[in-house]
Amino acid sequence: MKRKEIIERKKAISEIIKCACAPDRDHFSSFSQFRHYEYNGHSFCLKSGCGDKLSSKLKHYIQNILKVNMERVYGSEWQAEEKTKRKEMVSPEARYIFVYETVDSDAYRMSETVGERGSQTVCASDKDTIVGFVHFRFTLEEEVPVLYVYELQLEPRVQGKGLGKFLMQLIELIACENRMSAVVLTVQKENFSALNFYTSKLR
Ligand SMILES: CC(C)(COP(=O)(O)OP(=O)(O)OC[C@H]1O[C@@H](n2cnc3c(N)ncnc32)[C@H](O)[C@@H]1OP(=O)(O)O)[C@@H](O)C(=O)NCCC(=O)NCCS
Questions:
Q1: Atom 27 in ligand 1: which residue has the minimum CA distance?
Q2: Model's pTM, two decimal places?
Q3: Which of 197, 198, 200 to mutate to test the pocket of ligand 1 (most atoms within 8 A of CB)?
Q4: Phi and psi of 155, rounded to 5°?
Q5: Whose CA is nearest to atom 18 of ligand 1?
Q6: Where are the alpha helices (DSSP H) in the chain?
Q7: What's the structural domain count of the chain?
Q8: Number of neighbours of residue 200 by Cβ within 10 angstroms
Q9: Which of 69, 81, 140, 166 has the most beta carbons within 10 angstroms of its beta carbon?
């Protein structure tokens, strides 16, 4: 009986992961209020993406921001780590939320109002500039279904504006909606400011 229960449990968990990973699943659809963020006159919009559908422009962007933010933290291990990250980045399991700084927040608000009346809300026009991203996956960690945050990267000029906290709140909501038991991430001990952000600020 016990063996049967274990098999049933494993089946149920793999079904949860399969469902969360479905390629056509839009993790934003329930949280449209998180598509837009404002801070002190700066306006940002968020857009989702998938590892195997990244444009070469986005791939370059990801590689570049990782180097800028993480090379110093990893020190002599950076070259090996960079190789691993390049592979992880384009995996079909990789889910993304990209953050764009919008040039015209009034236009965004207008499109949002039109959106309420039935049209699609427009986000990230050609003029908007990407300023960061989260890479996450739905996976098993010690037999528990978790949302694993592979990367959370913001350009230095947009750090400290509450965007990191905003993104982690969205991540928690996405994890709950997809029946994940936890949000997991890894932080280098040498990355003092990120450690402080997760432990002191996000608790
Ligand atoms: C770590 C990181 C994601 C945090 O995002 P952020 O947008 O800068 O953080 P927020 O502005 O949302 O900060 C939320 C809170 O943490 C505090 N905080 C943010 N960065 C901090 C820092 N370096 N030192 C101390 N406190 C910090 C803010 O004061 C804020 O507190 P408040 O809510 O009381 O005002 C971002 O700084 C980053 O991209 N760093 C470089 C890449 C990196 O290390 N990523 C993590 C890899 S695991």
A1: 197
A2: 0.89
A3: 197
A4: -60, 145
A5: 197
A6: 2-21, 56-74, 78-89, 105-116, 163-177, 192-196
A7: 1
A8: 8
A9: 69
Return the residue matching tokens 């659809």.
29
Which of 51, 61, 39, 49 lies closest to 129 in space, CA to CA?
61
For residue 118, what pLDDT is reported? 38
Cα–Cα distance, 177 to 53 (Å, whole number): 24
Distance 118 CA to ligand 1 centre (A): 36
Strand, helix or coil for residue 190: coil
Where do we find the tokens 């949002």?
Answer: 112
Contact 68, 19 (CB under 8 A): no
pLDDT the model gives residue 116: 43
Asked if 149 contacts 185 with a C-beta cutoff of 8 angstroms, the reply is yes
Q: How many CB atoms lie within 10 A of CB 106?
A: 9
Domain of 52: which CATH number? 3.40.630.30
Mean pLDDT, the chain cut into blocks of 10 residues (203 residues total): 92 95 88 94 95 97 98 96 98 97 68 43 73 98 96 97 98 97 96 96 91
Amino acid at 29: S
